[in-house]
Write the structure tokens for this entry.
Amino acid sequence: MFESLAVWRPQALSLLRIITGLLIIQHGMGKLLGFPALPAYANVQPFSLIGAAGFIELIGGALLILGLFTRPVAFILAGEMAFAYFIGHFPKGFHPLINGGTLAILYCFTCLYLSTAGAGPWSVDAANKRA
């Protein structure tokens, strides 16, 4: 059974990248564009740490969705998520479930994986290699 699923590994990589990009871009949109509206992001200043994170998430998320410059973008996003965890969550406690950092860790390691695995076949990166 698992051998038949292995055929879909490249497409699954593309889906992981696209979904990760969609999930990350919403954080950037919430911080910078106010959509979706969240009270925590109501007064984000563009030149603050949260504003800078918003720019990285907005641009990085869009590039992940497209699969453009996937490896370096995913590496930058992994670093940003590690930074977010240690600056925003870890000071609240050791355990991610308690300090609210579960998603930051998951995004960090998903992006770290994407930085090593690449974009997959459904991407601008893959199309550029074929051209």
Remarks:
- The two ends are 35 Å apart (CA to CA).
- The longest helix spans residues 9-32.
